[in-house]
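User: Please fill in residues for this 392-position structure.
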């Protein structure tokens, strides 16, 4: 199993891999997880008895601009170095697959990532399956070539599967495997009162929240506008955003825009950014409801399962995977992406009606157990693994 994100940021794909690796039938599978960099979840994998390796991609030292070489030759030298590094990565990965006698390679991100591992699987004669967890506007020619050799592409939602078909991958072995969650793995360690105290908030605040990296496509600005229109009716309303700002110039710029928007609506006291938290469950549990606001299609929306595990009603944008998770009018509400007015109206309905919040929260927890259990996810994945192994 390979997680190819080399930046070390921990997203939903890491947790999905953690629960899958931990849930596999050990009488049939001995999982080894390979990361491209160190990360804070490695001890959790190891505590489950999963072997972990860190295999960094071969990264050449670029030829600098002060070498005296003409710019063209400098670029050519860099291109050659990167091509050589890519070949070396493939050979090294293939050697690992052979040495460790790996029977099946499972890639955790996308058909358009970890190409060095896909080539390595071909060289080593190992069947390869891929989890398609993303939503890409373009796919490379390499992805189209290597995709033909994949034993299966496990899409995290029907929306992702249809997107791949629309992008010309309809002949690939595409199958939908929804992500899963065990409510018992989402544990509470502190009370809502302790969370409010940590945020230096008074006891009478009404918390709502959103979880996700601070990025434009995640739609935090939509939520801030909605909160601005609710403040007069709900003066004790406080919205918390759990998530870090990725180390990217565009994301940092968006974060600054959010601060300007907060100033515009005079929301300094009712909008809080917590940054990265390892205790997300405690903060979500302290909220009356959970918001999802992506303005572009979300491949799945694992955080929605986490909210459902804690019996929180969900208000989610109506694009991509969340439509398959949230049952509109039963476990929460959905709204058109980017529509802050309709978002505000759904929030208003839930904030006014505690009985409705409770009933939707209970319905969401039941839906999680019935349709998105980790047992169902692992069983479906094992069936795909076994089919791939039978074809070898």
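Assistant: Residues filled in for all 392 positions:
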């Amino acid at each position: 199993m390979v997680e190819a994100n080399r930046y070390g940021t921990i997203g939903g794909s890491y947790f999905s891999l953690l629960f899958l690796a931990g849930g596999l039938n050990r009488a049939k599978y001995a999982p080894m997880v390979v990361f491209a960099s160190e990360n804070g979840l490695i001890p959790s994998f190891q505590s489950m008895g999963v072997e972990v390796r860190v295999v960094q991609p071969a990264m050449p030292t670029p030829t600098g601009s002060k070498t005296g070489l003409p710019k063209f030759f400098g670029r050519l030298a860099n291109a050659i170095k990167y091509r050589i590094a890519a070949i070396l990565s493939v050979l090294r990965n293939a050697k690992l697959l052979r040495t460790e006698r790996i029977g099946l390679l499972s890639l955790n991100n996308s058909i358009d990532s970890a190409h060095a591992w896909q080539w390595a699987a071909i060289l080593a004669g190992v069947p390869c399956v891929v989890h398609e967890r993303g939503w890409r506007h373009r796919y490379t020619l390499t992805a189209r070539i290597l995709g033909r050799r994949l034993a299966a592409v496990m899409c995290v939602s029907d929306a992702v599967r249809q997107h791949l078909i629309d992008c010309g991958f309809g002949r690939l072995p595409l199958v939908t495997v929804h992500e899963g969650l065990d409510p018992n793995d989402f544990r509470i360690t502190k009370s809502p009162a302790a969370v409010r105290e940590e945020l230096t908030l008074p006891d009478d605040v009404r918390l709502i929240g959103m979880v996700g990296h601070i990025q434009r496509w995640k739609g935090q600005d939509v939520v801030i506008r909605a909160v601005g229109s609710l403040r007069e009716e709900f003066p004790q309303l406080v919205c918390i955003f759990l998530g870090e700002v990725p180390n990217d110039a565009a994301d940092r710029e968006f974060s600054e825009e959010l601060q300007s928007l907060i100033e515009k609506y005079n929301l300094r006291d009712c909008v809080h950014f917590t940054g990265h938290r390892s205790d997300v469950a405690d903060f979500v549990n302290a909220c009356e409801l959970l918001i999802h606001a992506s303005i572009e299609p979300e491949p799945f929306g694992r955080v929605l399962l986490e909210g459902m595990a804690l019996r929180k009603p969900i208000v989610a944008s109506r694009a991509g995977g969340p439509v398959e998770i949230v049952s509109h009018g039963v476990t929460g509400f959905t709204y058109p992406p980017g529509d802050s007015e309709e978002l505000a109206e759904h929030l208003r309905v839930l904030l006014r009606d505690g009985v409705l919040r409770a009933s939707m929260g209970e319905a969401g927890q039941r839906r999680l157990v019935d349709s998105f259990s980790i047992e169902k996810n692992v069983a479906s994945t094992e069936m795909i693994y076994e089919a791939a192994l039978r074809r070898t």
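For context: The chain has a mean pLDDT of 91.
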